[in-house]
Design goal:
It is a single chain. By secondary structure, this protein is α+β, with helices and mostly antiparallel strands. It has a single domain, classed as NADH Oxidase (3-Layer(aba) Sandwich). 39% of the residues lie in helices and 15% in strands. The chain is built from 6 helices and 4 strands; from the N terminus they run ααβααβαβαβ. It has helices at residues 3-9, 23-34, 53-69, 75-82, 107-127, 145-151, and strands at 46-50, 94-101, 131-134, 157-166. A 4-stranded antiparallel beta sheet has the order 1-2-4-3. Helix 1 (3-9) crosses helix 5 (107-127) and helix 3 crosses helix 4. Bound molecules: flavin mononucleotide. Flavin mononucleotide is lined by residues 11-12, 14, 133-137, 175.
Length: 186
């Protein structure tokens, strides 16, 4: 697929078909992730790959609990967080957690590196016929290091980018964009 078409065609997908992502494709996603640039070439990305539905549901339930405990949310989100359904990871068959080692002074660059890796993974997913979505709410799981350790995120690592993937069961329209240049001096 042409890169332009890939960049413009990708969408965040929140409904998935009940079909597993082949292992080779999951591997390809992570290879695309680590092809991203990184500050001082630190390549800080570590991946935790979760396909077990019960494990994803457990993380989803805990995320909702943490979010509800945080107080003020709009009614629609409150309803979603109270729902029995997987309203966090949308029933996606593949959850990849990008984590980075906790290291004094490196958090900002780790965030940027992880975001760059995530977009590479999203574009590759789209090229392979998969949908994807960044699940920022999942980062609240950092408040439960024990549960994260249970799924494979060591306590000396931070979860930065929870990403879901799967075969899409919806095709949402593009959200409008505009290029807002504050100044362009020539
Ligand atoms: C840092 C970040 C966090 C996000 N967190 C969530 C999330 O927790 N749940 C969700 O449904 N979508 C989440 N999204 C997806 C955005 O809502 C989506 O990218 C945005 O609405 C634009 O739509 P598009 O990706 O289809 O172009 C997140 C995206 C980013 C970049």
């Amino acid at each position: 697929m042409e890169l332009d078409a890939c960049i413009k065609g990708r969408r965040s997908i929140r409904r998935y078909a009940d079909k597993a992502v082949p292992k080779e494709i999951a591997e390809k996603l992570m290879e695309a992730g680590v092809a991203a640039p990184s500050g001082m070439n630190a390549q800080p990305w570590r991946f935790v790959v979760i396909e077990k539905r019960e494990a994803i549901n457990k993380l989803s339930r805990r995320t909702k609990e943490l979010l509800l405990g945080m107080g003020q949310w709009p009614e629609n989100l409150k309803d979603a967080f109270k729902s029995e359904k997987d309203t966090i990871f949308y029933g996606a068959p593949l959850l990849i957690l990008i984590c980075t080692p906790k290291k004094e002074g490196w958090r900002d660059v780790n965030l940027l590196d992880s975001a760059l890796a995530a977009e590479n993974m999203f574009l590759t997913a789209y090229q392979e016929g998969l949908g994807s979505c960044f699940i920022g709410f999942g980062n609240f799981l950092n408040q439960d290091p024990k549960l994260l350790a249970d799924v494979g995120v060591p306590e000396d690592h931070e979860l930065i980018a929870p990403l879901i993937f799967g075969y899409p069961a919806e095709s949402p329209a593009a959200k409008p964009r505009s290029v807002q240049v504050l100044r362009w001096e020539r």
